[in-house]
Amino acid sequence: MTIAITGATGQLGQLALAAIKARGGQAIALARDPSKVQGEARAFDYTKPETHDALAGVSVLVLISSNDFNDRVGQHKAVIAAAKAHGVGHVIYTSILKGEASPMILAADHIGTEAALKASGLGFTLLRNGWYIENYTGALGASIEHGAMIGSVGEGKVSAAARADYAEAIAAVALDKALQGQVYELAGDVAFTLAEMAAVVSAKAGKPVGYVSLPPADYAKALEGFGLPAGFAAILADSDDQASRGALFDDSRTLSRLIGRATTPMAEVVAAALA
After folding, report:
1. What domain count does the chain have?
2. pTM for the full predicted model
3. I need a labelling partner for 83 at 20 to 30 A (CA). Which of 35, 56, 73, 208 fits?
C-alpha cells in the first residue's frame, strides 16, 4: 500500500507524516517544494495539473484541503480527477465537522468536495474535522497583552481538538483498510466556551484575560484591522457566529476512539503555546 499526502509541508501535513511514521508506516510527501521535506517527496501543486502525475503508483491518497481559498472546490476536483486517472484506489479527505449539515460559509467548499468524491467512483473516507485549538492559541500573545480574547462565539461550546489529534486520525485511517470507507465526525472529547479558555489562558499567563464576544460584523471589522482580507474576515466571523449556535459542538468522542487515546486537553495546548 503506497500512501501519499498532499499539503505535506503544511502544519497538518507535517504532523500526519510524523504520525504515520510513528505507527511504523511511511508516506510520500506531496508538496510544492519537495526539498523542504525529509524522506520521499514529489513536487505537487493543487493548482498545477502538470504536477498531478505525482499520483502515479499511489494507492491511498490523503487529500488535505487546500489553504488557498481561490476556487478550492475546483482545485480539489482537479486532484480527484487526477487520482482517478492514475488509478488511486482510495482518497481520504479532510472535510469539516457536520459536512453538508454545517451552516458555516466555510463548509461550502468541503460540501462541494464531498459531492465530487461521491460522484468520482473512487473509494473514499471523510474525516470531518472540527476546529483546531490552535486556531485560538495563535493570537494569545496579543490577547494577553490586551487582556482579552475576542470573537463572536458568545456562550457557545466548541469541541476543538489539537491539530496533532487530527493528524493521528489521518495516520490511523491511512494505515488500516478496515477503517476506510467511513464518514467520521471528529472533535475534541471536552467542549469548552471561549470564556472558559480565556480563564485557562489567564491562569497560565498569570495575567487577567477575559473573553469579549462581539457582534459578527464588528468582529469581522476587527479582523480586517489586524490585516486579514475582508472576505476571509467575514468567513471567520461567520464561523464564530455559527459556533455560538452549536456548529462546532460534537460529543460523540469519535476522534478519541479512532486514535485510541483521549484527545489532548485544551489546557495542555494553551500551555504549549505559551511555552
Report:
1. 1
2. 0.96
3. 35
